[in-house]
Amino acid sequence: MKNLILIRHAKSSWEAPLHDKDRPLTAHGMQCAHLVSSHIVKDLPKTYSIWCSTAERTKETAMIFAQNINFPLESILYKDDLYTFDERKLEKIIKLDSIGNDNIIIFGHNEAITNFVNKFGDVYIDNVPTTGFVHIEFDNDSWDNISKGKTKKTVFPRDLK
Prior knowledge:
Strand order of the largest sheet: 3-2-4-1-5-6
Strand content: 15-25%
CATH topology: Rossmann fold
Order of helices and strands: EHEHEHEHEEH
CATH architecture: 3-Layer(aba) Sandwich
Distance between the termini: 33 Å
């Protein structure tokens, strides 16, 4: 059994003239990250790895979640390859890099996340919103041959307000 949790970064700021990768979270984004992370603690597997895109907004989101779920910040694995908007690249990273991990939480970006959950989950989601949490369970022993999984849980900020 494999469990994958995909979390789209929280709302980021467009105010400063920065490169896309350097955009920080807004205050609202930080609030939503605290809200969702506090709500999902009971839904996490007992053990898991956290992978995160190297974009500033995903790093900030992952740090908020890690603090709220008591995951050591120094154990977050930052992967530049996760700074992608392409679900095929996301799929490739998961299938190739997941050896030894049964449960993975990934902080990443849209369109990759929405398209991935619609390809591999069994519940259609029009758009995974910022700070959206989607848990997919795969009845597989290996990541490299995952196919359609079961969408176990979704948590979106709008559902918690």
